[in-house]
Write a structure and sequence with these properties.
There is one protein chain. The chain has 360 residues and is mostly helical. The protein folds into two domains: 70 residues; 207 residues, no CATH class. It has 13 helices and two strands. A two-stranded antiparallel ribbon has the order 1-2. α1 packs antiparallel against α2 and α2 runs antiparallel to α3. About 12% of the residues have low confidence.
Length: 360
């Protein structure tokens, strides 16, 4: 009797899902001019040099040309800047456009408007300034307070602020901790305010317990002028916070407020050290050699009219300033405004930081 024929059995595999297919089966972007395959990170074709985002760049340039305000134009040019290869001729041209617009933003009276609506708004603004000249200070303070309150609506900022507050409370008590946290917060919001004015995207302030606070830029600052404006905006607002604390301390005889003013001034003065990513380094980026010598001279002068307890930080600022004096800087031909702001900040912050603790 013949045994039955046994047929081999093969296990059937389910069809491969689309997500498991070989990467080689996925479409690869190619240059629209020569057809060369392009990696995702490339901004220009390696064979013919055609810009990958050429069409988008054209649209952004057109939008910038018809923008009603310098701030709107800045936003478009910044987006275009990020889509160009680093160091390319096109990127350098756009960097020049951005620098020119920043100069206009520095002097609002020179801003151009391309629409009747914008011109009407400018005229109405002039009338409003004339009518409200006696209320200028109140309006200014109200605007700044409103902006500062807006920053506290971010959950990440609030949570990290409370964590830092808890640490400083355990070290120095809740009253000084509160003043110290507010001083740091005002400094960071100064950066945020200037970034918003220049149309730069950035994160809300995040506190790092024991190390201060920081913000993260979501795009690069292509010019030395912008870097200086953003960098020095923090100490400028920090100086304002120190002055307010000092006035409260003197006016209401609050030694604790004087202490907050001193420490706030000391921290902002330290941030003027021209090294690494500190605010002083951003300022020095915009200064030529002669201007750096003037900036260093202001630090040296502060050593002679301040008390000994601030000399240590001034010597640190002076040392790194002398080091940066020999650095070759080809990014700028000099920025007078950055120099003036730096000198004024060093002079006033050093003076406040040296106020006797028993004052008031």
């Amino acid at each position: 009797m013949r045994s039955p024929k046994v047929r081999p059995r093969f296990r059937k595999h389910p069809p491969m899902p689309a997500s498991d297919k070989s990467v080689t089966e996925l479409p690869i972007p190619s240059c629209r001019s020569c057809g060369t395959g392009l990696a995702a990170a490339l901004l220009a074709c390696p064979m013919c040099g055609t810009l990958v985002h050429g069409e988008q760049l054209t649209r952004l340039a057109a939008a910038a040309d018809v923008a009603e305000t310098p701030g709107q134009a800045l936003a478009f040019w910044r987006e275009a800047y990020q889509l160009l290869p680093t160091g390319s001729r096109q990127q350098l041209v756009i960097a020049g456009k951005i620098d020119a617009l920043v100069a206009i933003v520095d002097q609002p009276g020179r801003s151009k408007t391309n629409s009747p609506k914008g011109k009407a708004a400018a005229g109405a603004g002039a009338v409003a300034v004339f009518l409200a000249k006696f209320k200028f200070i109140l309006l200014l303070v109200g605007t700044k307070l409103k902006f500062l309150a807006l920053g506290l609506t971010k959950i990440g900022t609030l949570l990290s602020m409370f964590l830092s507050f808890g640490l400083y409370w355990s070290l120095w008590g809740w009253k000084f901790a509160a003043g110290f946290i507010l001083s740091i917060y005002v400094h960071e919001m100064g950066h945020v305010a200037m970034l918003r004015r220049l149309g730069v995207r950035a994160s809300a302030p995040m506190f790092i317990p024991g190390f201060g606070a920081m913000i993260r830029l979501r795009e690069n600052l292509p010019t030395a002028r912008e870097d200086a404006r953003v960098g020095l905006a923090g100490p400028i607002w920090g100086l304002g916070a120190a002055v307010v604390a000092w006035l409260l301390g003197v006016g209401f005889e609050l030694p604790l407020a004087i202490a907050v003013a001193k420490v706030g001034a000391w921290i902002n003065l330290f941030n003027l050290t021209p090294v690494w990513q500190l605010d002083g380094s951003r300022a020095f980026r915009a200064l030529d050699k002669k201007q750096r010598m003037i900036a260093i001279s202001s630090v040296l002068a502060a050593l002679f009219y301040t008390a000994g307890d601030v000399h240590g930080i001034l010597i640190i600022v002076l040392g790194f300033g002398v080091f940066r004096l020999f650095e070759k800087n080809t990014e700028t031909t000099g920025d007078k405004r950055a120099l003036i702001e730096y000198v004024v900040l060093v002079s006033t912050l050093a003076l406040i930081a040296s106020i006797p603790a028993e004052t008031g």
